[in-house]
Amino acid sequence: MPDPTLQNVVDQKELKWIFVGGKGGVGKTTTSSSLAVALAESGTRNRVLIISTDPAHNLSDAFRQKFTKTPTLVNGFTNLFAMEVDPQPDIGEMEQLEWAQDSFLTELAGSIPGIDEAMSFAEVMKQVQTMDYDTIVTPHRPLVGSAARVQPFLHWLTPAPHTFRSVTRMLGGMAGGGEGAADLPDQLLGKVEGMLDVVRKVSAQFKDPLLTTFVAVCIPEFLSLYETERLVQELAKFEIDCRNIVINQIIFPESVGGSRLLDARVRMQQKYLDQFYELYEDFHILQLPLLEEEVRGPEALKAFAVNLLKVGGALEERG
Asked: Smallest Cα–Cα separation from 120: which of 97, 155, 94?
């Protein structure tokens, strides 16, 4: 059975992208923040970036430090940076195009399958690709989800861009023409082609297990188990490596005392833990305890990061 730690992730120096995700409320932000801390302190990376596209700004809460769309050095570190970005496309830029003033043509562009996801994804990737970081960690699923969901758009457009130009020209004429309508195909296609270059490059990296991996985070309950299985299948479908699972909020038997409630929870959790090990026998599965307090601030994250890398580290921390 593989070691029950994330040491394999830290040791794989070639990794460019590490995604950490799962159902809401299972500890994605804490796990990803602690993993980024572990990477930064491992001595194997010169520059580590943790990036969140979550509008709730949980990353700022986890580190007790305000982050923006500009990479900021995390307090207490010399090589760990963090940023929180808006994953939405720049609508203002789109509206500046002349054809966007025509509601029919605007609806046409918006109806192309996957174009909104592709634009959002490309916008974030465009920012990140210009930065020099050894490894990028992200605690939010949309980056991977967007990479997957832009596929219908890529399949629709890539084989025949000339067809795309012909169709938009024809429909532009049907909409009544107007000033700037004749330039619609070239305007839209130019923007799309630039976006496609970014999407293709990053999507290729996501499919390379030497460059990208996904760490699934969950808790020992039915819905979380179901979501994890669905997530693992989705990642396999899009050829994204996933070989690590972190199971949070575990109540260990020695913590029960005389509580009947806790004893019942332990038995319920054990049932789902057994299913996790049956389904993912070739995965690195890490068990972490239910904590009395939130893990917030650099020092707390450093302490928690130890548990990600040591066999039995969580038990030692609890003891």
From this structure: 94
Measured distance CA(286)–CA(312) in Å, rounded = 9
What's the order of all strands across the beta sheet hosting 72-73?
72-73, 80-84, 48-52, 135-138, 17-21, 212-218, 242-250, 284-289
β-bridge mates for residue 213, sequence order: 18
3-state secondary structure of 150: coil
Give the distance, in angstroms, between the CA of residue 70 and the centroid of all CA atoms in the same chain.
18
Other CB atoms within a 10 A radius of the CB of residue 175 amount to 17
Structure tokens, 3: 């070691």
| Residues labelled as active-site residues | 54
Residue 53 binned pLDDT confidence (cut-offs 50, 70, 90): confident
* Contact residues for 29 (Cβ-Cβ < 8 A; gap 6+): 52, 54, 58, 59, 61, 62, 139
Helices marked H in the chain — which ranges? 7-11, 28-41, 58-63, 91-95, 103-111, 115-129, 142-149, 151-157, 161-174, 184-206, 222-237, 260-279, 298-309, 313-318
Beta bridge partners of 246: 217, 286
pTM of the entire predicted model: 0.78
- Encode pLDDT of 24-50 as tens digits: 889 999 999 999 999 999 998 999 999
